[in-house]
Every structure is written in C-alpha cells, then in structure tokens.
Amino acid sequence: MAEPGAFPLEVTDVIKDYPGSVRALDRVSFRIAPGERACLLGPNGAGKTTLIRLLTGALSPSYGQVRLFGLGVQHDDFLTARRRVGIVPQLPGMYRDFSVDDYLQLVRDLYGRGDIAEVVEGFGLGPYTRRPMAELSGGMQRRLSLAAALLGSPDVLLLDEPTVGLDPVAMRDVHSFLRRMMPGRTVLLCTHNLAEAEALCESAVILQQGRVVLHERIDALRQRIPALLALRAAQGPERLLAALTELGTSGRREEDAVLVPSPEPTTQAPELLRRLLAAGVDVYECRLVTPSLEQLFLDIIGAPHART
C-alpha cells in the first residue's frame, strides 16, 4: 500500500540526536523519485549510516518525518511498505549456525513471498545452500545478502557500503550483480567508493556535518567544473606552457602533460591546436578530461557552505 503520488523514499526536516548532545542529522530533507538511482555520499561522521538506519525503520527520528511510499513509521501500513524495500547492510549480519538455505527461507517468511530457487541460481549459490553461513567467504556472504535483498522482488533497494572489505574480484562480481538488480528499481547507495557511485548511480545526495548540501544529477554536477584538455607535446610540458602563455591561454602542468580549461572543447580544441602548431609546438596528444565524481565531491565538500 502507498499514498497516491508518493515518493518511494522521503525525508522531511529530520533531526536525529544521540545521548550526550550529539546531533547526527540536522534538519535533513530530500526525496528520491521512482526509478532514481541515487548515491548517498559524505565524509566520515556526516550522518550517512544514521540516515540509512532511519530509512529502514531501525531508528526513529528525534524530529521530522521519514516516509516509505508516503507512509511514516507510525502508520499502520508502514510494515507493508517496508516489505517493498530490499536492504543490503554494510555488515552481512550472518546467523552463524544457519545454512544458506535456512537463511533464505527465513527471509522469504518475513517478506511473505519470493522464489528461493530463482535467487540461488541467479547469484550462484547452488553449491553452498547447505553450508553454514559462518563458513562462507566475504564475497559469498555479500552475494547472499544481495540474494536476500532481492528475494521479495522489492521496488526499492537500500545499499549500505555493499562492497566494503571485498577484494577486487569479489567487488567486480558484486557490481555485476548490482547492475542486474538496479534497473526498474529506486536505489539509494551509501558508499565511500566514489568510482562505484559514479558507475552505478545517476544522482548524488551529499551530506556534510549532518546536513544535505546537495541533491543533484551527476551529469548536472559536471557542468559546474569546466572540462579540461590534456595536451602533450614533443618539446615537453615547459615549452608547451610557455607557448600557451604567449597565446593568452592558461594551463597547469600535471606530470608530462598540460591541462587547459576548455568549456567548449569541440570548438576550442581545433583552434588551439592550429595555433600551437603555428607557434612551432608539436602536440602529439590532445585528450578531453571530464571531472570525475571524486573531483566534484571534493570540490563541493571543500567549499564553505552557509547553514540555513
């Protein structure tokens, strides 16, 4: 059940205080639209884990509202809404004595639906169904968490650091599974891995000191920082920098390349290359560099934000 026209995830003016006058969240508000794949970013202590726990119903806000499909935690149908959410916790939370099959049966009973055989096959858990969960590798435990989250065919996925602590091979496998799970679902991915966030998400919610400083599409964020042209010349970076200065163009050295801001690279790059060639500088590489999510994130949290 859901309120007509409601957002799958909605946080309104939320404050969360802990004992000792610790304010983890300070009037946080944002909404995740149906089908939106958003990453939740922020430095350590920004309030990300607290926010995820509020959205799962594990915590209650000190003030404000947290809603799933328009239903707050006090609503009679909140549990029904909660069953439409699949959760992958930061720590798998293994029931050490349960077998894989026992655990998936428990999850199915809690959600009241789901095809265990389907998720076992989809996540390659067939050889492990009778194995105690405590004996699974870290990567296999994370697979099991993903299978459990998907078992109830959720409309929303809450992913709290789904690849933390995994080796590169296990991380690659989890990313592959996530790419299959995400289409058609609303997703909130909490992660410190900015490359992961950029690969899997289309928008970002950035927390800093318990407040939302930004909620925007990643492609729109990129427009805040001009693209760069990475140039390499046969005469070396110092000669290239000198020639750019003579042409009235700024640049900065990065190892053996020179980076030149270029808001309109398709029109500016050809003209710049012609002028450098005429100045006797042989540019053998010209590559467009767009800002990564990591650069955007550092630019945003590094700038002062007025509290309102």
Topology:
Blueprint: E1 9-18, E2 22-32, E3 37-41, H1 48-56, E4 63-68, E5 71-72, H2 78-82, E6 85-88, H3 100-111, H4 116-122, H5 138-151, E7 156-160, H6 168-181, E8 186-190, H7 194-200, E9 203-208, E10 211-217, H8 218-222, E11 228-233, H9 237-246, E12 252-254, E13 257-261, H10 265-278, E14 283-289, H11 293-302
Parallel strand pairs: 3-8, 3-9, 6-7, 7-8
Antiparallel strand pairs: 1-2, 1-4, 4-5, 9-10, 11-13, 11-14, 12-13
Helix pairs in contact: 3-5, 4-5, 5-6
Structural class: alpha/beta
How far do the termini sit from each other? 35 Å
Q: What percent of residues adopt helix (DSSP H or I)?
A: 25-40%
CATH architecture of the largest domain, please? 3-Layer(aba) Sandwich
- Sheet having the most strands: 6 strands, mixed
Number of domains: 2
CATH class bucket of the largest domain: Alpha Beta
Q: How many β-strands, per DSSP?
A: 14
Molecular shape:
elongated
List keywords for this structure.
308 residues; alpha/beta; Rossmann fold; Alpha-Beta Plaits; 2 domains; six-stranded mixed beta sheet; four-stranded antiparallel beta sheet; 11 helices; 35% helix; 27% strand; disordered C terminus
